[in-house]
Q: What sequence folds into this?
């Protein structure tokens, strides 16, 4: 065929066309010829390395296509003779010819490309110009090709040839204008180009040059047309935004490490959600879910599926095609699909040890089974499953994850990372060293910054790649329903590291004159708080930081925070050992010995030297309240240490008995010193009368309130205003007082009590009479339990 076509000139073509006796026969010939040519081009008759034969065939096909295009214009364009299918076949043939592999010169070597250009030229530019001219020749028939021809024209403009792109991208504006003049919008064109662009870019077409050309050419066209200026600019911004996200997505999808493709997938699904393209949104939800499951990120996979489930209603409405996604057609209704999704989500939450979240889903399913569809068999199953999750919360060990702040600085990073900071949720038992290795593997040329301060322009504007990584602490959100209650540590620990959106990093620095004997005196803290776009965990293991604030903590405030954390840590260890006697004793040994033995840590003696001396009080009279607060915290540490040492003595082995006795000796001295200077505190923990609950002072006291000097101060020391005054005793018991509080001990009467978020604090006396309180806020104490006319709540 190629040989025959090569022998034909324009006159031959003209004579052949004229030889057809009727228009229908000519139309049939052209239709069959277009289909044949397209089939031959698509099937590549010759091997791809037969360059000469392929180029000869293409040259003859191009000449024939142009001859037939003239026939189309002359005989099938007028209103009376227009043939839509014939023109449609022509455009599809021309685009197939232009996009065939044998004409993509940029894929060839320099020598081969030069040889083809010298002998045959770039046929893509010739056929591209012909397509453009044929489009403009259509006149009022153009609307019949919208949106059908949007995809083929887009495919043509994505060919990486600059002049071709410049000459064909304006066709898009003509399509917009054509639809706008007829319907006052170009929504059909917009929907089609967004849909086709997604598949084309994912298939490897498109680049940064195309994005810039598309934006500049269409913006200039729209601004030159008053009616399309504003809607046209919005459309261009929409398409370029999508192109940017698609190019980022494609760049990382080809990497071996798929971690960053999750971020790009989220960027895309959020984009489609904002512009209300539900089918594309759900499509990327499932791509994200599959990525998470492949990395065993079951929690994130569950949250991702939950986004689809939330779009569905508990109703018997039929599923639409976008809502159905990839699920079985047997799930006809939204209720069926939502139930199937919820069961899968529960499985994922179970695998991710997020049983609290699984319980929420189970409750919603149970409500449907019980009140809507009355399926008691399924209700029984889901309630049993829910019960197992409650049991796992209390009995299965769940290590709290570490969180890391990661900054990507420098122009060498892709746009979705460049000069941004993210908070990452580490994997179970993952060390920072392992996390950093995993983090740096996709960027072998990146340099790790050794400081935690934000870098300057010399780093952020440089062409290189710099990564900053450090550990941050989650900041728990206050929860009203958990306040004023005694709650097991296994429950509360979950909320300390989950559903968090704020994270802090504390950097110590020295300020003022240096004291070599006491570093605490000028140890200031710069605390940076990061707020993320969404709480963690979520549909990603990391989220971008949206705001950052920095505060300065004085040395005295730092000492108070340190004491509060130490007391909470002791109480936590006490509760752990009371709840599980089989725990190893080593962590408790190290904690107690580090506090009571001054040779190990120095204890709080450094605080006394730094803040309790007269010179400091004279220089900082405004710190009097905080100093009293610190003293109070020191006093409260004694009963905690006493309980810890008691437990340690019960569990210590004979080999460690000398170590324990040494610790007891140190504690006796420490206790005598503290109680003489800061007053007496005593802690009593009680047996929960509900079966199965070990004795425990659960969820340590809120030292912020408990120790605040403004609230109250116990009479210091063992000297009292009156020689017959009783010895003070402060009792602590769980906040579910009075049901779990014991009856008063012999010779001890309970008189006044008030609650902190976690404990009831009782003043008690030996031999009658209440402890004396200094109450500067006029706290109104409640009557003691059992007092006449008092309702116990």
A:
């Amino acid at each position: 065929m190629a040989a025959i076509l090569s022998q034909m000139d324009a006159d031959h073509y003209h004579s052949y066309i004229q030889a057809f006796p009727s228009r229908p026969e000519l139309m049939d010939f052209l239709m069959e010829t277009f289909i044949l040519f397209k089939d031959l081009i698509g099937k590549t008759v010759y091997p791809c390395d037969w360059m000469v034969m392929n180029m000869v065939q293409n040259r003859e096909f191009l000449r024939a296509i142009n001859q037939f295009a003239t026939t189309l214009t002359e005989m099938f364009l007028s209103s009376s003779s227009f043939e839509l299918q014939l023109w449609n076949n022509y455009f599809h043939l021309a685009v197939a010819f232009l996009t065939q592999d044998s004409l993509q010169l940029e894929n060839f070597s320099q020598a081969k490309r030069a040889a083809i250009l010298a002998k045959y030229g770039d046929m893509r530019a010739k056929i591209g110009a012909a397509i453009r001219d044929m489009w403009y020749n259509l006149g009022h028939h153009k609307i019949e090709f919208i949106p059908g021809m949007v995809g083929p024209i887009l495919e043509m403009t994505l060919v990486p040839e600059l002049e071709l792109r410049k000459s064909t991208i304006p066709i898009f504006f003509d399509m917009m204008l054509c639809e706008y003049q007829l319907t006052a919008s170009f929504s059909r064109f917009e929907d089609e180009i967004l849909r086709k662009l997604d598949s084309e870019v994912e298939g490897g077409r498109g680049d940064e040059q195309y994005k810039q050309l598309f934006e500049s050419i269409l913006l200039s066209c729209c601004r030159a047309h008053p009616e399309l200026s504003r809607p046209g600019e919005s459309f261009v911004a929409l398409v370029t935004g999508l192109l940017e996200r698609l190019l980022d997505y494609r760049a990382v999808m080809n990497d071996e490490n798929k971690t960053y493709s999750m971020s790009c997938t989220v960027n895309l699904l959020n984009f489609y959600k904002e512009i209300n393209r539900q089918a594309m949104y759900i499509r990327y939800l499932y791509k994200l879910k599959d990525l998470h499951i492949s990395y065993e990120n079951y929690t994130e996979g569950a949250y991702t599926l939950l986004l689809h489930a939330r779009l569905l209603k508990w109703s018997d409405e039929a599923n639409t095609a976008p809502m159905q996604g990839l699920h079985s057609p047997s799930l006809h209704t939204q209720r069926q699909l939502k139930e199937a999704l919820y069961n899968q989500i529960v499985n994922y939450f179970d695998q991710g040890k997020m049983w609290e979240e699984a319980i929420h889903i189970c409750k919603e399913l149970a409500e449907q089974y019980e009140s809507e569809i009355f399926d008691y068999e399924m209700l029984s199953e889901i309630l049993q499953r829910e019960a197992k999750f409650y049991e796992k919360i209390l009995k299965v060990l769940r290590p709290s994850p570490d969180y890391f702040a990661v900054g990507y600085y420098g122009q060498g990073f892709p746009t979705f990372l460049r000069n941004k900071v993210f908070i990452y949720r580490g994997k179970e038992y993952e060390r920072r060293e392992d996390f950093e290795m995993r983090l740096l593997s996709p960027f072998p040329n990146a340099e790790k910054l050794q400081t935690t301060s934000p870098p300057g322009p010399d780093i952020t504007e440089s062409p290189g790649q710099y990564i900053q990584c450090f550990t941050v602490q989650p900041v728990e959100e206050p929860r009203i329903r958990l306040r004023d209650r005694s709650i097991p540590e296994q429950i509360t620990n979950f909320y300390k590291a989950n559903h968090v959106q704020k994270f802090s990093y504390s950097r110590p620095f020295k300020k003022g004159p240096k004291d070599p004997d006491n570093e605490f005196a000028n140890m200031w803290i710069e605390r940076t708080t990061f707020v993320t776009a969404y709480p963690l965990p979520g549909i990603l293991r990391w989220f971008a930081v949206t705001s950052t604030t920095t505060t300065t903590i004085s040395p005295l405030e730092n000492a108070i925070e340190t004491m509060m954390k130490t007391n909470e840590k002791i109480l936590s260890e006490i509760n752990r050992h009371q709840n599980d006697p089989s725990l190893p004793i080593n962590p408790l040994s190290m904690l107690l010995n580090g506090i009571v033995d001054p040779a190990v840590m120095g204890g709080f003696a450094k605080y006394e030297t730094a803040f309790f001396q007269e010179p400091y009080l004279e220089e900082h009279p405004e710190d009097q309240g905080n100093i009293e607060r610190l003293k109070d915290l020191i006093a409260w540490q004694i009963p905690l240490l006493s309980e810890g040492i008691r437990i340690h003595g019960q569990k210590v082995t004979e080999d460690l008995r000398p170590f324990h006795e040494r610790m007891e000796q140190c504690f006796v001295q420490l206790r005598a010193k503290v109680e003489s200077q800061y007053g007496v505190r005593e802690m009593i923990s009680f047996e929960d009368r509900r079966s199965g609950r070990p004795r425990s002072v659960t969820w340590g006291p809120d030292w912020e309130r408990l120790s605040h000097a403004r609230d109250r101060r116990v009479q210091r020391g063992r000297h009292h205003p009156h020689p017959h005054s009783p010895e003070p005793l402060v009792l602590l018991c769980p906040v579910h007082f009075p049901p779990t509080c014991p009856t008063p001990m012999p010779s001890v009467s309970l008189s006044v009590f008030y609650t902190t978020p976690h404990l009831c604090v009782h003043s008690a006396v030996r031999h009658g009479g209440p402890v004396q309180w200094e109450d500067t806020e006029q706290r109104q104490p409640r009557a003691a339990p059992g007092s006449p006319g008092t309702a116990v709540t």
Observations:
- The mean pLDDT is 83.
- The chain has five domains: 1-141, 146-254, 308-395, 403-553, 560-774.
- The longest strand covers residues 523-536.
- The chain has 31 helices and twelve strands.
